[in-house]
TrEMBL record:
GO terms for biological process: carbohydrate metabolic process. It comes from the Bacteria. Pfam families: PGM_PMM_I (PF02878), PGM_PMM_II (PF02879), PGM_PMM_III (PF02880), PGM_PMM_IV (PF00408). NCBIfam families: PRK09542.1. Belongs to the phosphohexose mutase family. This is Phosphomannomutase. Keywords: Isomerase, Magnesium, Metal-binding, Phosphoprotein. SUPFAM superfamilies: Phosphoglucomutase, C-terminal domain (SSF55957), Phosphoglucomutase, first 3 domains (SSF53738). InterPro entries: A-D-PHexomutase_a/b/a-I, A-D-PHexomutase_a/b/a-I/II/III, A-D-PHexomutase_a/b/a-II, A-D-PHexomutase_a/b/a-III, A-D-PHexomutase_C, A-D-PHexomutase_C_sf, Alpha-D-phosphohexomutase_SF. Residues 383-456 form the Alpha-D-phosphohexomutase C-terminal domain.
Length: 461
């Protein structure tokens, strides 16, 4: 018996094809999705992985078997699927494993208007229903119903997606810029030419060929080794900046004119300032900006200085989107380079964040390094993972080490955050692996390094 708990995660489906799942299971997921969500129509898209077209088509067949009409938008980025869900007001399914290696694939599902489907919003029910259709030998039998089979049609939404994004950021008066773009053989190679093609930009393309085997490097810019090629290209061609997209192109990382990575917290602050100005010009008082608890202290400081109000959340897109809906937030940012916009159905889109960076840079004459320097107020360690046998015991040991320090505060919104006057660190347990994740920030390099080493010594003792 196949246990779907191995591939149905907190926010999506993710596993190795065909070892852990295949077209038969995709077909069952499609039928279960329609049955649980109660959808009479669904939009489906997929990335460039070799297994994606057949899995997406099987899902569409399963959805249609339960009476839903299916709109296939074909090759797309994840944020393009969210766009289609919002524009068409349909639940959606995106076939991608994001930055995972080539043998993986997955499904990101959403309700109408790109509202997320996760553990607490239907994914458990979808998993359980699909599991009930798996036979003892691993085969899948989807029970027949009296529903009239729905239609499956194709629709191209790429230009409409580009037009929507370009309608949210005014780039008409920017100066000409040279931009190196590393698509990592992922879906950025599909979306970037259409979105950026008509702007006063000289695009230097890198790895735009769609290839789900990722022949050049992993499509995961969060790992510094995957930025090396882009950094070298920026320096080589004298680009004004570099953009790196992950495999499904919903995240965007930025490199300045020197080839140095720009901290995603600085991008969050830059975009927040622009979104605040836009909202205030429309008459909004104290617009809300969301940030997760491991973004830099600079973000809430800068938001407050610009007349906004911040809401601090746990790490993870479902928490950000839930809080955005609750608070009416105009924008949210995460350390992982996920950026969420109210004007984009509260969904994450790296492309829209990139357009804001291009606009901010092109509207003035300073280089990007100077432009973002005002948003870099602290020194961060980046996320450091440690394998531990007993996560709770190690966290308790760290708490004990800092418990008697004067002026130190603790909170447990997500893991344990410990803060002093000019420093903080967060220690979070992984939900899926025996890991503790450490993020440290301080006013200066020496304090950050000392604090990082002190905590790691306890965690790894």
């Amino acid at each position: 018996m196949r246990d779907l708990k191995q591939i149905v995660k907190a926010y999506d489906v993710r596993g190795v094809v065909p070892d852990q799942w295949d077209a038969d299971l995709a077909r069952a997921f499609g039928a279960a999705f329609v049955q649980v969500i109660g959808a009479d129509a669904v939009v489906v898209g997929h990335d460039m992985r070799p297994s994606s077209p057949s899995l997406a088509r099987a899902f569409a067949e399963g959805a249609a078997s339960r009476g839903a009409d299916v709109v296939e938008i074909g090759l797309c980025s994840t944020d393009q699927l969210y766009f289609a869900s919002g524009k068409l007001d349909l639940p959606g399914a995106m076939f991608t494993a994001s930055h995972n290696p080539a043998q993986y694939n997955g499904i990101k599902m959403c309700r109408k208007g790109a509202a997320p489907v996760g553990e607490s919003t239907g994914l458990v029910e979808i998993r359980e229903l699909t599991q009930s259709w798996i036979n003892a030998d691993g085969s899948v039998t989807i029970p027949a119903t009296d529903a009239v089979t729905g239609s499956i049609t194709q629709q191209d939404e790429l230009q409409a997606y580009a037009d929507h994004l370009l309608g949210l950021v005014d780039l008409t008066s920017i100066r000409p810029l040279k931009v190196a773009v590393d698509a990592g053989n992922g879906m950025g190679g599909h979306t970037v030419p259409t979105v950026l093609g008509g702007l006063p930009l000289e695009i230097v393309p890198m790895y735009f060929e769609l290839d789900g085997t990722f022949p050049n490097h992993e499509a995961n810019p969060l790992d510094p080794k995957n930025l090396v090629d882009l950094q070298a290209k920026v320096r080589e061609v004298g680009a004004d900046l570099g953009l790196a997209f992950d495999g499904d192109a919903d995240r965007c990382f930025v490199v300045d004119e020197n080839g140095d990575p720009v901290n995603p917290s600085a991008i969050t602050a830059l975009v927040a300032v622009r979104e605040l100005a836009k909202a205030q010009a429309a008459g909004e008082q104290e617009p809300v900006i969301i940030h997760n608890l491991i973004t830099s202290w600079a973000v809430p400081e800068i938001v407050a200085e610009n007349g906004g109000r911040v809401v601090r959340t746990r790490v993870g897109h479902s928490f950000i989107k839930e809080e955005m809906a609750k608070s009416g937030a105009i924008f949210g940012g995460e350390h992982s380079a996920h950026y969420y916009f109210r004007d984009f159905w509260r969904a994450d889109t790296g492309m829209l964040a990139a357009l804001h960076v291009l606009a901010a840079l092109g509207e003035q004459t300073k280089p990007l390094s100077e432009l973002v320097s005002v948003y870099n107020r602290y020194i961060q360690s980046g996320e450091i993972n440690s394998t531990v046998a007993d996560q709770a015991e190690r966290v308790a040991a760290v708490r004990a080490a800092f418990a008697d320090e004067p002026g130190v505060s603790f909170d447990e919104l997500d893991g344990m955050t410990v803060a002093g006057a000019d420093w903080w660190f967060n220690l979070r347990a992984s939900n899926t692996e025996p890991l503790l994740r450490l993020n440290v920030e301080a006013r200066d390099e020496a304090k950050m390094a000392a604090l990082r080493d002190q905590v790691l010594a306890i965690v790894r003792a």
